[in-house]
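Title: Prediction job returns without error message
Component: structure pipeline
Severity: low
Priority: P3
Assignee: unassigned

Description:
Job completed but the reporter wants confirmation the result is attached to the right record. Sequence as submitted:
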Amino acid sequence: MPRYNGVGFAGLKTERRKHEEMRRKMLFFTCLLAMMAVSGRGAPGPPLESTDFGEGVFAVEPEFDFGEAQAAHASLVKILDESSHPAKRFRAIRAYRKRFSAAGDSVPRLRELVIVLRSRKAGQAEVDTALIIGYLVVDDSKEARLQYLKDLAPMLASIRQNQANDAWARLTAAMLFGFLPELKGNWFDEALYAMSYGYYDPQLQLAVGSYLLSMDLAYGGNERMQWLVYLALTRAQALAPGNEQLRRRIRSMVVENLDIPGYRPSKWLKMLATG
């Protein structure tokens, strides 16, 4: 299995260090949101929204047509059943949710999708279901959150056990652990697993690099984290040479972080920003 310049998987942190990191995260996010409110910048969304699945980079937009409300559900189910690459399925789920969020109709439609996918036995259906439930946590009421967490906990345990070598499955776990602390998962380890198992997938490298970049905001800029971001995003470009849209997307997302007051960029991010 590939390793990144001798860096293996992170071990479990001590409980004391976990609590200290969580305290620092919460403090920084509080300050960050306050600064964004003053500057007029939008607050960063949860990882399911901020992680880049390659829209417009690895497929021409609009990639999906969910304009016809009555046919949209069947169209998405067909895509989820027939598409072999997780990135396309993830983009389809996100596009479908976006299509119906504006009208306030995303929750019943996403719930309907969960019911359909739970009848499938394929491993990819379980990963897709976990992703959709994550969006439901964002879109549905606070009262429904507890039930969604109860649904996700065994699902993620199954994914980690039965799809341990699947990069997109591990990235899904990382994204969910990253914004749902109640799940008590190690998002950093899961991201490293995804990064390594997806070593030859440029779409995965873009996704995990963007995910780590968004999580780096919680630290106000961490050199080690940014080095991993650099490795993932440069790997994505190496696997997709000549993809100018990819190069522009990477530069744009890095510059967006650099523009945040108080953020501490390392030389690795500065290299990406000028690439």
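Comment from assignee: result matches the submitted record. Residues 1-16, 26-43 have pLDDT under 50 and may be disordered.
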